[in-house]
Amino acid sequence: MIRSCLKASRTFISHCPVALSHDAVSQPVLVRRGLSMGLWPFSASPRDFSLPNASWNAEMRQVYDHYTALCEVKTEDSEETGPWHKLPSYNRSLKHAAGGVYLSKLIQSKARLFTRNKKEYGAAFEYVIFMNKQEKRCVCAFQAGHLLEGPPGHVHGGAIATMIDTVTGTLAGYLVGPVMTANLNINYRSPIPLGGVVLIHSALDRLEGKKIFVNCRVTSTDESKLHTEATALFISVNMGHLFGM
Ligand SMILES: CCCCCCCCCCCCCCCC(=O)SCCNC(=O)CCNC(=O)[C@H](O)C(C)(C)COP(=O)(O)OP(=O)(O)OC[C@H]1O[C@@H](n2cnc3c(N)ncnc32)[C@H](O)[C@@H]1OP(=O)(O)O
């Protein structure tokens, strides 16, 4: 069983955008693997859910174009990489999931990332995350679909919390490797209209041993309106923790 867990974790590791070296199962060592996902095991060309689609409104597209331009600085001679990176986003993390420790094969095969479990464009979580590793921060453009309604015409607080957990967790994971959320503190300041686009800004506050403290602000795209503020604590875990070992 331990061998199958290790195999599962290695499969997982080798397909993370920011992954650990193979001998990092018990001792994380960060290895930047770039954004290529060419060896993805589930299909020849997995869908990157963070690419523009027909459901994106003009504001969402505008933010995407703005940050994409900051990713690629083209000169006459060469195409340099800017300080920002667009992260790809897939709906499955694991082929073998928890190595059979907890999950039945049926559940393993059907498991999907919560925020990417709708095939219908625009129905729920449309988002794209841009990472700035130098500044240890990221920005997410989030367009909330009609299935995320809470108060009439506005986004459900749980859906907002999900996105905050996702963005802050992605930042923490990008910077230090596998993490789990230990604490999430949220203040809802003003409601987010359904179908609207907001920016979710997240930055590293500090690292204390295994603890990663991250802050987060959800604002309008022009940043004039504050919708939500949050702080999050993530704990660095080894792959064994994720697989119940
Ligand atoms: C792997 C990534 C793959 C990504 C690829 C797919 C891409 C898509 C990206 C989407 C990104 C989504 C990101 C979502 C991430 C979740 O939503 S995770 C799910 C929700 N979280 C959980 O279920 C966590 C459940 N809790 C646990 O497993 C364990 O309690 C923890 C949090 C891992 C900590 O356990 P532990 O390692 O034994 O830590 P422990 O030694 O007890 O404590 C370490 C330190 O932290 C402190 N601490 C621990 N808990 C707390 C707390 N709640 N409050 C304050 N301090 C605390 C302790 O006091 C201690 O402090 P020091 O004494 O060192 O000063």
From TrEMBL:
Keywords, in A-Z order: Apoptosis, Cell membrane, Cell projection, Cytoplasm, Fatty acid metabolism, Hydrolase, Lipid metabolism, Membrane, Mitochondrion, Mitochondrion inner membrane, Transit peptide
Catalytic activity field: hexadecanoyl-CoA + H2O = hexadecanoate + CoA + H(+); tetradecanoyl-CoA + H2O = tetradecanoate + CoA + H(+); decanoyl-CoA + H2O = decanoate + CoA + H(+); (5Z,8Z,11Z,14Z)-eicosatetraenoyl-CoA + H2O = (5Z,8Z,11Z,14Z)-eicosatetraenoate + CoA + H(+)
Domain spans labelled Thioesterase: 153-224
GO terms under biological process: apoptotic process; fatty acid metabolic process
Membrane topology field: Peripheral membrane protein
InterPro entries: HotDog_dom_sf, THEM4/THEM5_acyl-CoA_thioest, Thioestr_dom
Subcellular location: Cell projection, Ruffle membrane; Cytoplasm; Mitochondrion inner membrane; Mitochondrion intermembrane space
One GO MF term: hydrolase activity
Keyword Mitochondrion: yes
One GO CC term, this protein: mitochondrial intermembrane space
EC number: 3.1.2.2
Principal place of residence: membrane
Entry similarity comment: Belongs to the THEM4/THEM5 thioesterase family.
Protein name according to UniProt: Acyl-coenzyme A thioesterase THEM4
Organism: Hemibagrus wyckioides
Species lineage: Eukaryota, Metazoa, Chordata, Craniata, Vertebrata
